[in-house]
Amino acid sequence: MIEINNVSKSFGSLEVLKGIDLKVEKGEVLSVIGASGSGKSTLLYCINALEPIQGGEIRVDGIDVHGAKTDVNKLRRHIGMVFQQWNSFPHMTTLENVALAPRIVLGKTKAEAREIAARQLDHVGLGDKLDTYPTNMSGGQQQRLAIARALAMEPDYMLFDEVTSALDPELVGEVLDTLKMLSEEGMTMILVTHEIPFARDVSDRVAFFRQGVIEEIGPPSQVIGDPTSEHTKQFLSNVR
Amino acid sequence: MSESINIAAQSASFFTGFKLNDLWYLAGAAGHTLMIAALAISIGTVFGVFFGWVLSVSRWAGAATLGLVLDMFRSVPLIIQLILFFNFFPIIGLPLNPFAAGTIVLVFYTAALVASVARGGIESVPVTTRKAARSLGLTYWQELFYITFPIGCRSALPAWTGVALGVLKDSALVSVLGYVELLRASQILITRTQQPFIILAIAGAFYFALSFPIARITERLERRWQS
């Protein structure tokens, strides 16, 4: 379970998160929607300890993410993250991209790591691209590679930061299909997304962020289908 | 120094034309150039990459201290550095031979040039790529060695090649300390034979033969990395 208690986060004098409270249960899919700059992506970075926080606490399976004694490298093995920019490692083949972390972080043998990588790449539909370099693949394929790379660590949680925003429209579908497949397999996911219909389709709950606070949270049928907040209504009518 | 005076004294007594033996003499001197340049480039690159990393990590503190020292090495003409350094050690009672003094100065000169190249390479790696690697559980050092260095290496390679070729040629300046490398050997032969054209052409050919492999190997690496 991911527990976020009264978290605040600033970049200099700019307060990006203003006391966020949130719980995500095992197996749940939570979508986070909201305008750019509302703090959605920052929250994901904080859950993974890629950004420090200024107040409150975040616990993942009871471990204080920003605790002084916490081994963040160990913690991150349980939390996969996929970014807006797919961030492939350009000097490695697809297979090597995925096999790297199992080998050097989990200490698997080369053969084991390659086996894990091949399985995960096959899982996201890249089974025929094992020896291809990422620069020779489309954005959608590279984004699925990034998903396979995160899954190879067998994480308990997956964080997705606007993973379709940088893609050409015709490539969005293949990545969303992969996300949907993961949600159906029971993966616990937090999705920061602008794909409102998709969020409505796959999520157990949807949170609407506005100016660093959660304006509204609940089942998609309510938050997207019948929002109570004026701001949510306005945001949804703008993106539709 | 005494050796070259000897040779100069001999050559004053009789001028003789260029002989096959002189070619071996030049080849040996080219070996000295290769040795001093190889030491300077390899050790200087190791230091330079380390300095470049320091500069990329601590921009303000690094630029104010280390950056300033490196700027001095980069901007003072190499010949002045060589002469100052070579004459400084006897003053404090630790005479250095020309080879050691030349190598040390060239190492720092190379390191200063490589430092900015290496910093550029490290900073060319997108922050999000580095974060993506960290999000997989890689430690800081694992990320640096498996991700940032290899990717940065690719973008820094052309500039590094320029530095390496430059240092190889600049190593000729060590001749002012009396170390008999390719240029110094050519001068000695010219004094004896009075045939500057042929000897300088041969020396030039040796420099080319030393530089060409560096240029070709790095070019091939670049092409392989691009595909």
TrEMBL record, chain A:
Domain ABC transporter: 2-236
One Gene Ontology term, aspect cellular component: plasma membrane
Pfam families, per the entry: ABC_tran
Subcellular location, principal: membrane
InterPro entries: AAA+_ATPase, ABC_ATPase_HisP-typ, ABC_transporter-like_ATP-bd, ABC_transporter-like_CS, MetN_ABC_transporter-like, P-loop_NTPase
Topological category with respect to the lipid bilayer: Peripheral membrane protein
Tree of life domain: Bacteria
Subcellular location: Cell membrane
Record-linked SMART domains: AAA
PANTHER family from the UniProt entry: AMINO ACID IMPORT ATP-BINDING PROTEIN, GLUTAMATE_ASPARTATE IMPORT ATP-BINDING PROTEIN GLTL
Family per similarity comment: Belongs to the ABC transporter superfamily.
Protein name: Amino acid ABC transporter ATP-binding protein (PAAT family)
Taxonomic source organism: Aestuariispira insulae
Lineage of origin: Bacteria, Pseudomonadati, Pseudomonadota, Alphaproteobacteria, Rhodospirillales
From TrEMBL, chain B:
Protein's name according to its UniProt entry: Amino acid ABC transporter membrane protein 2 (PAAT family)
Membrane spanning stretches: 23-55, 76-93, 99-122, 197-215
Cellular component annotations (GO), alphabetically ordered: ATP-binding cassette (ABC) transporter complex
Domain ABC transmembrane type-1: residue ranges: 30-218
InterPro entries per UniProt: AA_ABC_transptr_permease_3TM (IPR010065), ArtM/GltK/GlnP/TcyL/YhdX-like (IPR043429), MetI-like (IPR000515), MetI-like_sf (IPR035906)
Superkingdom in the source lineage: Bacteria
Membrane topology note: Multi-pass membrane protein
Cell location: Cell inner membrane; Cell membrane
